[in-house]
Amino acid sequence: MQEITRVEQLKQVLDEVRCSGRSIGFVPTMGYLHQGHLALVGAAREESDLVVLSIYVNPAQFGADEDLDRYPRDQARDLRMAEAASVDIVFAPTDEEMYPGGLKNQCVWVDPGTLAESLCGASRPGHFRGVATVVAKLFSMVAPQRAYFGQKDAQQAIIVSRMVRDLGMPIEVRTLPTVREPDGLALSSRNVYLCDEERGQAAGLKASLDRALAAFRDGERDARSLKGTVLAHLLETAPVAGVDYVDVVDLETLTPIDGQIEGDALLALAVYFGQTRLIDNVVLRTV
Ligand code: AMP
Fold first, then answer.
1. Could you say which of 144, 163, 232, 250 would form a disulfide bridge with 24 (CB–CB 3.0 to 4.6 Å)?
2. What residues are in contact with ligand 1 under a 6 Å CB criterion?
3. How do residues 197-229 score in pLDDT, each as one tens digit?
4. Which of 166, 63, 198, 183 is nearest to 121 (CA)?
5. What residues contact residue 80 under an 8 Å CB cut-off, 6+ apart?
Protein backbone atom coordinates (compact mmCIF):
# COMPACT_ATOMS: atom_id res chain seq x y z
CA MET A 1 0.00 0.00 0.00
CA GLN A 2 1.24 3.43 -0.89
CA GLU A 3 0.54 6.55 1.14
CA ILE A 4 0.44 9.75 -0.90
CA THR A 5 0.00 13.30 0.37
CA ARG A 6 0.78 15.34 -2.77
CA VAL A 7 -1.63 15.82 -5.66
CA GLU A 8 1.23 15.86 -8.15
CA GLN A 9 2.47 12.46 -7.03
CA LEU A 10 -1.05 11.02 -7.00
CA LYS A 11 -1.60 12.12 -10.59
CA GLN A 12 1.70 10.58 -11.72
CA VAL A 13 0.98 7.24 -10.09
CA LEU A 14 -2.62 7.12 -11.33
CA ASP A 15 -1.66 8.15 -14.89
CA GLU A 16 0.48 5.03 -15.03
CA VAL A 17 -2.39 2.93 -13.71
CA ARG A 18 -4.74 4.29 -16.38
CA CYS A 19 -2.11 3.81 -19.13
CA SER A 20 -1.83 0.16 -18.21
CA GLY A 21 -5.61 -0.18 -18.64
CA ARG A 22 -6.38 -0.82 -14.98
CA SER A 23 -9.62 0.53 -13.49
CA ILE A 24 -9.74 2.73 -10.39
CA GLY A 25 -12.29 2.50 -7.57
CA PHE A 26 -12.40 5.43 -5.15
CA VAL A 27 -13.62 5.69 -1.55
CA PRO A 28 -13.56 9.24 -0.14
CA THR A 29 -13.58 9.47 3.68
CA MET A 30 -12.74 11.78 6.54
CA GLY A 31 -10.80 8.99 8.24
CA TYR A 32 -11.21 7.44 11.69
CA LEU A 33 -12.18 4.36 9.73
CA HIS A 34 -14.80 1.83 10.75
CA GLN A 35 -16.59 -1.12 9.16
CA GLY A 36 -18.92 1.24 7.24
CA HIS A 37 -15.92 2.67 5.39
CA LEU A 38 -14.46 -0.82 4.94
CA ALA A 39 -17.68 -2.07 3.34
CA LEU A 40 -17.19 0.61 0.67
CA VAL A 41 -13.57 -0.50 0.26
CA GLY A 42 -14.74 -4.12 -0.09
CA ALA A 43 -17.13 -3.19 -2.91
CA ALA A 44 -14.42 -1.13 -4.62
CA ARG A 45 -11.99 -4.05 -4.25
CA GLU A 46 -14.43 -6.40 -5.98
CA GLU A 47 -15.14 -4.12 -8.91
CA SER A 48 -11.84 -2.35 -9.59
CA ASP A 49 -8.20 -3.21 -10.25
CA LEU A 50 -6.89 -0.46 -7.99
CA VAL A 51 -8.52 0.97 -4.86
CA VAL A 52 -7.84 4.53 -3.73
CA LEU A 53 -9.07 5.64 -0.31
CA SER A 54 -8.83 9.31 0.59
CA ILE A 55 -8.62 10.62 4.12
CA TYR A 56 -9.33 14.32 4.37
CA VAL A 57 -11.26 16.24 7.01
CA ASN A 58 -12.61 18.95 4.74
CA PRO A 59 -12.76 22.31 6.55
CA ALA A 60 -15.14 23.72 3.91
CA GLN A 61 -17.98 21.48 5.06
CA PHE A 62 -17.84 22.44 8.76
CA GLY A 63 -19.68 25.46 10.14
CA ALA A 64 -17.87 27.90 12.45
CA ASP A 65 -19.48 26.36 15.57
CA GLU A 66 -19.07 22.73 14.45
CA ASP A 67 -16.57 20.02 15.40
CA LEU A 68 -13.76 20.53 12.84
CA ASP A 69 -11.06 20.88 15.50
CA ARG A 70 -12.18 17.95 17.61
CA TYR A 71 -13.20 15.62 14.75
CA PRO A 72 -11.60 12.25 15.65
CA ARG A 73 -8.35 11.52 13.83
CA ASP A 74 -5.94 8.57 14.02
CA GLN A 75 -3.93 8.29 10.85
CA ALA A 76 -1.70 5.42 12.03
CA ARG A 77 -4.72 3.27 12.85
CA ASP A 78 -6.44 4.25 9.58
CA LEU A 79 -3.36 3.20 7.60
CA ARG A 80 -3.27 -0.17 9.33
CA MET A 81 -6.97 -0.75 8.65
CA ALA A 82 -6.67 0.37 5.03
CA GLU A 83 -3.73 -1.95 4.46
CA ALA A 84 -5.57 -4.89 6.04
CA ALA A 85 -8.52 -4.15 3.71
CA SER A 86 -6.22 -4.31 0.64
CA VAL A 87 -6.42 -0.63 -0.25
CA ASP A 88 -3.74 0.13 -2.84
CA ILE A 89 -3.34 3.87 -2.31
CA VAL A 90 -4.25 6.08 0.64
CA PHE A 91 -4.44 9.70 -0.43
CA ALA A 92 -4.19 11.91 2.66
CA PRO A 93 -3.60 15.45 1.44
CA THR A 94 -2.88 18.53 3.54
CA ASP A 95 -5.19 21.56 3.55
CA GLU A 96 -2.64 23.39 1.40
CA GLU A 97 -2.82 20.65 -1.25
CA MET A 98 -6.62 20.78 -1.33
CA TYR A 99 -7.04 24.54 -0.94
CA PRO A 100 -3.83 26.20 -2.17
CA GLY A 101 -3.56 29.57 -0.45
CA GLY A 102 -6.30 28.65 1.99
CA LEU A 103 -10.10 28.44 1.87
CA LYS A 104 -10.35 32.18 1.32
CA ASN A 105 -8.58 31.62 -2.01
CA GLN A 106 -11.30 29.23 -3.24
CA CYS A 107 -13.33 31.24 -5.72
CA VAL A 108 -15.34 28.68 -7.69
CA TRP A 109 -17.66 26.38 -5.74
CA VAL A 110 -20.09 23.60 -6.64
CA ASP A 111 -23.58 24.69 -5.65
CA PRO A 112 -26.01 21.79 -5.02
CA GLY A 113 -28.99 24.16 -5.38
CA THR A 114 -32.31 23.09 -3.90
CA LEU A 115 -30.91 19.65 -2.97
CA ALA A 116 -29.11 21.38 -0.10
CA GLU A 117 -32.17 23.22 1.20
CA SER A 118 -33.77 20.42 3.23
CA LEU A 119 -32.63 17.95 5.95
CA CYS A 120 -28.97 18.48 6.97
CA GLY A 121 -28.61 21.25 4.41
CA ALA A 122 -31.20 23.33 6.28
CA SER A 123 -29.44 22.85 9.65
CA ARG A 124 -25.91 23.18 8.26
CA PRO A 125 -25.87 26.08 5.78
CA GLY A 126 -22.98 25.75 3.32
CA HIS A 127 -22.23 22.16 4.36
CA PHE A 128 -23.17 20.52 1.04
CA ARG A 129 -21.53 23.26 -1.00
CA GLY A 130 -18.33 22.30 0.84
CA VAL A 131 -18.98 18.59 0.33
CA ALA A 132 -19.80 18.89 -3.39
CA THR A 133 -16.76 21.10 -3.98
CA VAL A 134 -14.28 18.81 -2.23
CA VAL A 135 -15.75 15.70 -3.88
CA ALA A 136 -15.48 17.41 -7.29
CA LYS A 137 -11.83 18.24 -6.54
CA LEU A 138 -11.11 14.68 -5.40
CA PHE A 139 -12.88 13.27 -8.46
CA SER A 140 -10.71 15.35 -10.77
CA MET A 141 -7.54 14.38 -8.86
CA VAL A 142 -8.30 10.65 -8.73
CA ALA A 143 -10.40 10.37 -11.93
CA PRO A 144 -11.84 7.00 -10.89
CA GLN A 145 -14.22 4.84 -12.95
CA ARG A 146 -16.33 4.25 -9.83
CA ALA A 147 -16.78 6.02 -6.50
CA TYR A 148 -18.41 4.58 -3.38
CA PHE A 149 -20.66 6.33 -0.85
CA GLY A 150 -22.74 5.21 2.12
CA GLN A 151 -26.52 5.39 2.44
CA LYS A 152 -26.03 6.64 6.01
CA ASP A 153 -25.27 10.03 4.49
CA ALA A 154 -28.19 9.77 2.06
CA GLN A 155 -28.41 13.46 1.19
CA GLN A 156 -24.68 13.53 0.43
CA ALA A 157 -24.95 10.45 -1.83
CA ILE A 158 -27.92 11.96 -3.68
CA ILE A 159 -26.12 15.30 -4.15
CA VAL A 160 -22.92 13.62 -5.39
CA SER A 161 -24.89 11.40 -7.81
CA ARG A 162 -26.71 14.45 -9.13
CA MET A 163 -23.48 16.46 -9.42
CA VAL A 164 -21.95 13.68 -11.53
CA ARG A 165 -25.06 13.61 -13.73
CA ASP A 166 -25.46 17.38 -14.10
CA LEU A 167 -21.75 18.09 -14.69
CA GLY A 168 -21.26 15.09 -16.99
CA MET A 169 -18.50 13.54 -14.90
CA PRO A 170 -17.51 10.13 -16.32
CA ILE A 171 -17.84 8.36 -12.96
CA GLU A 172 -20.26 5.72 -11.69
CA VAL A 173 -21.48 6.53 -8.20
CA ARG A 174 -22.36 3.53 -6.04
CA THR A 175 -24.35 3.96 -2.85
CA LEU A 176 -24.03 1.10 -0.36
CA PRO A 177 -26.29 0.17 2.58
CA THR A 178 -25.64 1.58 6.04
CA VAL A 179 -23.49 -0.68 8.23
CA ARG A 180 -24.83 -0.87 11.78
CA GLU A 181 -23.93 -2.00 15.28
CA PRO A 182 -25.85 -5.09 16.44
CA ASP A 183 -28.41 -2.84 18.21
CA GLY A 184 -29.06 -0.86 15.02
CA LEU A 185 -26.92 2.24 15.61
CA ALA A 186 -25.36 3.33 12.32
CA LEU A 187 -21.57 3.21 12.51
CA SER A 188 -20.11 6.70 12.53
CA SER A 189 -16.74 8.18 13.41
CA ARG A 190 -18.67 10.49 15.75
CA ASN A 191 -20.02 7.58 17.86
CA VAL A 192 -16.81 7.76 19.95
CA TYR A 193 -18.07 11.04 21.41
CA LEU A 194 -21.04 9.31 23.10
CA CYS A 195 -21.02 8.61 26.82
CA ASP A 196 -22.48 5.28 28.02
CA GLU A 197 -25.97 6.67 28.60
CA GLU A 198 -26.05 8.34 25.18
CA ARG A 199 -24.65 5.25 23.47
CA GLY A 200 -27.40 3.14 25.07
CA GLN A 201 -30.11 5.50 23.89
CA ALA A 202 -28.60 5.96 20.41
CA ALA A 203 -30.09 2.61 19.37
CA GLY A 204 -33.45 4.40 19.59
CA LEU A 205 -32.75 6.27 16.34
CA LYS A 206 -33.01 3.24 14.08
CA ALA A 207 -35.73 1.67 16.24
CA SER A 208 -37.83 4.83 15.78
CA LEU A 209 -37.28 4.88 12.02
CA ASP A 210 -38.20 1.19 11.90
CA ARG A 211 -41.49 1.86 13.72
CA ALA A 212 -42.43 4.37 11.04
CA LEU A 213 -41.19 2.07 8.27
CA ALA A 214 -43.44 -0.70 9.62
CA ALA A 215 -46.42 1.70 9.63
CA PHE A 216 -45.54 2.75 6.07
CA ARG A 217 -45.44 -0.90 4.99
CA ASP A 218 -48.85 -1.37 6.62
CA GLY A 219 -50.19 1.33 4.31
CA GLU A 220 -49.69 4.60 6.23
CA ARG A 221 -48.94 7.27 3.60
CA ASP A 222 -49.35 10.44 5.64
CA ALA A 223 -45.90 11.97 6.11
CA ARG A 224 -46.96 13.90 9.22
CA SER A 225 -48.20 10.74 10.88
CA LEU A 226 -44.94 8.90 10.10
CA LYS A 227 -42.90 11.79 11.52
CA GLY A 228 -45.11 11.72 14.60
CA THR A 229 -44.41 8.01 15.04
CA VAL A 230 -40.65 8.62 14.90
CA LEU A 231 -40.82 11.55 17.33
CA ALA A 232 -42.98 9.65 19.83
CA HIS A 233 -40.67 6.62 19.77
CA LEU A 234 -37.58 8.81 20.07
CA LEU A 235 -39.05 10.47 23.14
CA GLU A 236 -39.52 7.03 24.69
CA THR A 237 -36.22 5.40 23.68
CA ALA A 238 -33.81 8.33 23.52
CA PRO A 239 -35.09 10.94 25.99
CA VAL A 240 -31.70 12.71 26.32
CA ALA A 241 -31.54 13.30 22.57
CA GLY A 242 -32.38 16.75 21.23
CA VAL A 243 -34.14 16.46 17.88
CA ASP A 244 -32.68 18.58 15.09
CA TYR A 245 -35.14 17.30 12.48
CA VAL A 246 -37.32 14.37 11.52
CA ASP A 247 -38.44 14.76 7.93
CA VAL A 248 -39.89 12.99 4.94
CA VAL A 249 -38.58 14.16 1.56
CA ASP A 250 -38.88 13.08 -2.04
CA LEU A 251 -36.12 10.55 -2.74
CA GLU A 252 -34.95 12.32 -5.90
CA THR A 253 -35.55 16.04 -5.35
CA LEU A 254 -35.26 16.02 -1.53
CA THR A 255 -38.29 18.32 -1.41
CA PRO A 256 -40.13 18.03 1.94
CA ILE A 257 -43.40 16.09 1.89
CA ASP A 258 -46.02 17.14 4.43
CA GLY A 259 -49.11 15.35 3.19
CA GLN A 260 -49.55 12.10 1.28
CA ILE A 261 -46.48 10.21 0.08
CA GLU A 262 -46.99 9.35 -3.56
CA GLY A 263 -43.55 8.37 -4.86
CA ASP A 264 -40.38 6.96 -3.29
CA ALA A 265 -39.37 8.98 -0.26
CA LEU A 266 -36.67 9.27 2.37
CA LEU A 267 -37.47 9.38 6.08
CA ALA A 268 -34.46 10.96 7.75
CA LEU A 269 -33.51 12.33 11.14
CA ALA A 270 -30.75 14.18 12.92
CA VAL A 271 -30.46 14.35 16.70
CA TYR A 272 -28.03 15.81 19.18
CA PHE A 273 -26.59 13.91 22.11
CA GLY A 274 -24.96 16.85 23.87
CA GLN A 275 -22.71 18.34 21.18
CA THR A 276 -22.71 15.16 19.10
CA ARG A 277 -24.94 15.22 16.06
CA LEU A 278 -26.03 11.84 14.68
CA ILE A 279 -28.02 11.14 11.52
CA ASP A 280 -29.89 8.16 10.15
CA ASN A 281 -32.54 7.38 7.55
CA VAL A 282 -34.70 4.74 5.89
CA VAL A 283 -36.03 4.68 2.33
CA LEU A 284 -39.81 4.50 1.89
CA ARG A 285 -40.42 2.68 -1.38
CA THR A 286 -43.91 2.93 -2.82
CA VAL A 287 -43.47 0.01 -5.26
P1 AMP B 1 -17.12 9.96 6.51
O2 AMP B 1 -15.72 9.54 6.79
O3 AMP B 1 -18.01 9.93 7.69
O4 AMP B 1 -17.19 11.25 5.72
O5 AMP B 1 -17.71 8.85 5.53
C6 AMP B 1 -17.06 8.47 4.34
C7 AMP B 1 -17.98 7.59 3.54
O8 AMP B 1 -18.34 6.45 4.32
C9 AMP B 1 -19.30 8.29 3.17
O10 AMP B 1 -19.69 7.89 1.86
C11 AMP B 1 -20.24 7.78 4.20
O12 AMP B 1 -21.60 7.78 3.78
C13 AMP B 1 -19.75 6.35 4.36
N14 AMP B 1 -20.19 5.81 5.65
C15 AMP B 1 -20.04 6.37 6.88
N16 AMP B 1 -20.64 5.62 7.82
C17 AMP B 1 -21.19 4.56 7.17
C18 AMP B 1 -21.95 3.42 7.58
N19 AMP B 1 -22.28 3.22 8.85
N20 AMP B 1 -22.33 2.54 6.64
C21 AMP B 1 -22.01 2.73 5.33
N22 AMP B 1 -21.30 3.78 4.87
C23 AMP B 1 -20.89 4.68 5.78
1. 144
2. 29-30, 36-37, 39-40, 149-150, 152-153, 176, 178-179, 186-189
3. 999 999 999 999 999 999 999 999 999 999 999
4. 63
5. none
